[in-house]
């Protein structure tokens, strides 16, 4: 049921799915609230994975990122949470911790197993009605409970449900963002994957062509303005303080140290910068986590893993906006395509 005053969603098409073939032990689950377009996404690694993080946006909202610093003690994490709801959405991790505790998963302290759950949030409080409706601990629990290995639903679900892009001229000229996934497997079995929720201030650009895929619309709403031209013409109005953010996770089956997976997370930000223009702004909280599950038996070169992480991050961002479903006043890429833009 949609909350009073919320824009009605457009007709939903079949959700796109992709899998992380080659990475075992990683499960992904979404929970999307029915009252307003918002939700959370959980990446579970119950057996543990070596974790890292890179935070480059000027307005981040995160949890447990200090624990992932290579100089600190705990190297294994059990879940990453991506959530809408701004800082309120950080509550979703509590539900994931409850789910993992019930299953006996966590860091052994001698008196209890403490699940290590890191999180980043994005701002979607202005989308679809009552801003008091946001992801909570139950959202996190439900997403963890429903997490599955092998396929990932993309688009306007979970953390991508209320995501938007192209807000440099205000929400009235923005477009629908979403959540997307991509992966690559080399002949030797090395796999690198990404899942990214795209809620950017700027445009989403295809790095292969340089063309804008989604972003700031023209004044009449029928075309794309191209934020690069707006910036050069001093026409940008970046007044969306802290209301943005692209957040995601890169995952590999390589055996990496905490320092190495942190470097991979850093390199994945290059893919974010190729696909989101501008990125890492004072009003975005751009954050990328890294997970190394360790299932790959061969030696893995961090340079190769990091370069691939950048590539799949870009692809996941493109997929996020291409498969998103629009809302009234927030058209999707498919809405533009349907009317022959």
How would the blueprint of this fold be written?
Elements: E1 17-18, E2 27-32, E3 39-55, E4 62-63, E5 76-83, H1 92-102, E6 107-108, E7 113-114, E8 117-121, H2 137-145, E9 152-153, E10 164-165, E11 175-176, E12 178-185, E13 191-199, E14 203-205, E15 212-214, H3 227-232, E16 245-252, H4 258-275, E17 276-277, E18 287-292, H5 302-322, H6 333-338
Description:
With 341 residues, the protein is an alpha+beta fold. It has one domain: 4-Layer Sandwich (L-amino peptidase D-ALA esterase/amidase). It has 6 helices and 18 strands. Strands 2, 3, 4, 5, 8, 12, 13, 16 and 18 form a 9-stranded mixed beta sheet that branches. A 3-stranded antiparallel beta sheet has the order 15-14-17. Helix 1 (92-102) packs across helix 2 (137-145). The longest helix is centred in the C-terminal third of the chain and has 21 residues, at 302-322. It is globular. The two termini are 32 Å apart.
What tags apply to this protein structure?
single chain; 341 residues; L-amino peptidase D-ALA esterase/amidase; nine-stranded mixed β-sheet; three-stranded antiparallel β-sheet; 6 helices
Q: Judging by the overall fold, what is the CATH architecture?
A: 4-Layer Sandwich
- What is the 3D shape? globular
- Total strands: the figure is 18
| Helicity range | 10-25%
Low-confidence stretches: 1-16
CATH class descriptor name: Alpha Beta
């Amino acid at each position: 049921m949609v909350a009073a005053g919320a824009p009605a969603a457009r007709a939903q098409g079949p959700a796109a799915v992709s899998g992380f073939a080659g990475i075992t032990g990683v499960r992904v689950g979404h929970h999307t609230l029915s009252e307003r377009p918002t939700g959370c996404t959980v990446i579970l690694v119950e057996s543990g994975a070596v974790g890292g993080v890179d935070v480059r946006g000027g307005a981040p909202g995160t949890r447990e990122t200090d624990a992932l610093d290579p100089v600190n003690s705990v190297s294994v994490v059990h879940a990453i949470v991506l959530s809408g709801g701004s800082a309120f959405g950080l509550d979703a991790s509590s539900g994931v911790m409850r789910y993992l505790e019930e299953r006996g998963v966590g860091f052994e302290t001698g008196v209890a197993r403490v699940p290590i759950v890191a999180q980043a949030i994005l701002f979607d409080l202005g989308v679809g009605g009552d801003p008091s409706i946001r992801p909570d601990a139950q959202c996190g629990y439900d997403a963890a409970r429903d997490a599955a290995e092998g396929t990932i639903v993309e688009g306007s679900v979970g953390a991508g449900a209320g995501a938007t892009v192209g807000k440099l001229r205000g929400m009235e000229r923005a477009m629908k963002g979403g959540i997307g996934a991509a992966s690559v497997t080399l002949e030797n079995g090395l796999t690198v994957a990404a899942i990214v929720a795209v809620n950017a201030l700027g445009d989403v650009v295809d790095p292969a062509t340089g063309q804008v895929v989604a972003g700031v619309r023209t004044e009449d709403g029928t075309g794309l303005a191209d934020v690069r031209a707006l910036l050069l013409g001093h026409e940008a109005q970046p007044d969306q303080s802290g209301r943005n953010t692209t957040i995601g996770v890169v995952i590999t089956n390589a055996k990496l140290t905490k320092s190495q997976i942190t470097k991979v997370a850093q390199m994945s930000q290059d893919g974010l910068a190729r696909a989101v223009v501008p990125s890492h702004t004072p009003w975005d909280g751009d954050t990328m986590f890294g997970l190394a599950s360790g299932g790959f038996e061969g030696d893995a070169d961090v340079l190769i893993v990091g370069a691939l992480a950048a590539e799949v991050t870009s692809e996941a961002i493109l997929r996020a906006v291409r498969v998103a479903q629009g809302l009234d006043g927030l058209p999707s890429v498919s809405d533009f395509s349907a009317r022959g833009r």
